[in-house]
Amino acid sequence: MMRAPRRLSLAVLSLAMALGGASCAKKGGPVSVTRVDPETGTTGGGDQVTIKGAGFEPGTTTADVRFGRKRAEGVVIASTTDINVTTPSSERGPVDVTVILNDGTAFTIPNGFRYVEPQDSAKVREAYLKTEGK
Prior knowledge:
The model is unreliable at 1-26 (pLDDT under 50). The chain has helices spanning 3-24, 121-132; strands at 32-37, 40-42, 48-54, 63-67, 70-71, 73-77, 82-86, 93-101, 106-116. The longest helix has 22 residues, at 3-24. By secondary structure, it is of the alpha+beta class. The strands form 2 sheets. A 5-stranded mixed sheet has the order 2-9-8-4-5, with no helix packed on it. The chain has a 4-stranded antiparallel sheet with strand order 1-3-7-6, with no helix packed on it.
């Protein structure tokens, strides 16, 4: 009868230690991804955008960012709240934005970014050439 409470208390102690360690793992608070700024860019890609969120650790956190199925380039954890990226080219319309952090945590912003046709004629040609080979 004495052993059952002892086993239980060891299990509770182990669980408490595991949970305590997990809550200390992120110094910047809970990790979250909330929005993309700006929310639109041209179909040719190459636009600089910022993924807004919280709990990132510059120098420690790394991320894979995708616009639809295409990987963003130049991904930089700029601060505890910002991830800067360069958009890939895509067809016109909305795409989901997915952020996968190095700890395996993934966030998706449904229809988080909208690709639009460029207004400048030189950019129209550039966008056409980038998306033509898809």
